[in-house]
């Protein structure tokens, strides 16, 4: 993957088509391990810098500012919905997850497929989630970011989705809508959430050390079961983001490169 253009092209095409891939066997030791997710980003284009930095570390820690930095369960969500232009792709590299950790399975769900199912099964709920605006926020030590979007956000002129905007962990507690619409909104959100967790949309896996799971942050929602650490074991993931614009550019150049070498 790091040396073969054809392998990289296949990886990126799979990402575009399926929204979820897992790279196995990445380095986990020392500086090479810590840099592996950045190196993969640089092999494609370059990582997207956010208020969390160029990369971010997912570990349990004291006085956490985010639910991800605890052993608690993380519900299905997309990252950074409080950005006007959220990251297109997320990468999570598993550096440490020993057999002395109970739980911690990652789960993923195809939000576009769930939205299509909702549209057929419950058109009123679908209309509610595609027309009502919801506020999201992130309050860090030095930043306070806010944004507003609908749960199924950005329908294009041909009815395709541009992104799913759903993250209850950072959804504002205040709903800017008439009081008689609030219960209907929560009912619609429950219907969507049920589909997201259903077998037709979701998969679950426990990452192994050296795995880099890569997924479309505008389509595929991700979450994590709670976990318990026994003894001195540690769960450690390093994350990064890519923009789809740079990825599409890389795909076009790789297609040119691969074609030029064909007989």
Automatic annotation (TrEMBL):
It comes from the Eukaryota. Its cofactor is L-ascorbate; Fe(2+). One of its GO terms (molecular function) is metal ion binding. SUPFAM superfamilies: Clavaminate synthase-like. The keyword Iron applies. InterPro entries: AlphaKG_dependent_hydroxylases (IPR050411), TauD-like_sf (IPR042098), TauD/TfdA-like (IPR003819). Residues 5-241 form the TauD/TfdA-like domain. Pathway: Amine and polyamine biosynthesis; carnitine biosynthesis. One of its GO terms (biological process) is carnitine biosynthetic process. Belongs to the gamma-BBH/TMLD family. This is TauD domain-containing protein.
């Amino acid at each position: 993957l790091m040396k073969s253009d054809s392998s990289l092209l296949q990886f990126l095409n799979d990402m575009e088509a399926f929204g979820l891939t897992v790279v196995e066997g990445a380095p986990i030791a020392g500086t090479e391990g810590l840099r592996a997710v950045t190196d993969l980003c640089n092999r494609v284009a370059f990582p997207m810098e956010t208020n969390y930095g160029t990369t971010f570390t997912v570990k349990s820690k004291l006085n956490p500012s985010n639910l991800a930095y605890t052993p608690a369960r993380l519900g299905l969500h997309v990252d950074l919905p409080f950005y006007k232009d959220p990251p297109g792709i997320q990468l999570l590299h598993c550096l440490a997850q020993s057999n002395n950790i109970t739980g911690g399975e990652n789960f993923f769900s195809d939000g576009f497929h769930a939205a299509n199912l909702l549209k057929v099964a419950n058109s009123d709920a679908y209309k509610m989630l595609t027309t009502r605006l919801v506020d999201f926020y992130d309050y860090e030590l030095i930043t306070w970011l806010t944004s507003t979007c609908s749960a199924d956000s950005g329908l294009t002129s041909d009815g395709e989705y541009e992104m799913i905007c759903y993250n209850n962990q950072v959804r504002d507690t205040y709903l800017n809508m008439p009081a008689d619409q609030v219960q209907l909104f929560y009912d619609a959100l429950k219907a969507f959430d049920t589909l997201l967790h259903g077998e037709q949309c979701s998969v679950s896996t426990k990452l192994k050390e050296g795995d880099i799971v890569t997924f479309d942050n505008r389509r595929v929602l991700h979450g994590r079961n709670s976990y318990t650490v026994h003894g001195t074991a540690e769960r450690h993931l390093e994350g990064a983001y890519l923009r789809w614009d740079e990825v599409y550019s890389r795909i076009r150049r790789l297609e040119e490169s691969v074609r030029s070498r064909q007989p």
